[in-house]
Request: fold
Amino acid sequence: MKNLIVFALFLLVAATSCSDYNKVVKSTDYEFKYKKALEYYEDEEFVRSSQLLSELVNIYRGTSRADEVYYYYAKSHFGMGDYLMAGHWFRTLVKDFPKSQYAEESQYMIGYCFYKESPKPRLDQQVTQKAIDALQLYVNIYPGSDRVEEANRLIIEMRDKLVYKSFLSGRLYYDLENYKAAVVALSNSLKDFPDTQYREELMYMLLRAKYLLAIRSIEEKKEQRLTAALDEYFTFVDEFPESEHRKEVDKFYKETAKLLNYNEEANL
Reply:
């Protein structure tokens, strides 16, 4: 019986709430409607606040309150998890009202919305790059802001994701034993991110890919590719002389040198 009473009260409150909201929606008193939209926003009823503000965006466009309406409309979308629309309205605010009191936060939120949309590393990372660019722009425009430290932290996080994506792309071709494509992908990864935490592993895979590509090549391409593998060996052991891969890559060197009739002492 107690549960039934609680459930009945819940239905009554919900029905009353819906009835009140419908009255707000139908109202032609825009000041009243705006006030209620802000109340819904403060109560984190973002669907209702966004629905009311979607109408008020057009009503208040061109007035002194337009930037504020844009701001809460964008924040309502963000509260719903609609980062695409939130970002759109934050960009619109910054574009139309660059001197608004909401411009600084909106500039930050543009980058933060891209950050929230950033996919897992294995997927395309265009949005991640947009997040980095937008947050870096914020830092450049507002270097003294309290949000700069957080913006820089997010930039580092996004760059780490790009680094990992690059590593995964190179390793994919390597794992598929498509060594020609692996050499290109791994070389590009090292070029784009020379300070990557995966540098040793990337360089090892690049050396092994060049070695296997060379020994499997047709005769007219073999010598050139063996020489490239040999050069890669010297680069690797010079940078990582104590690598856990050292014993294996030394075998690559011996086989490559043998095939090339390479005498290290004679070339000193």
Confidence is low (pLDDT under 50) at residues 4-16.
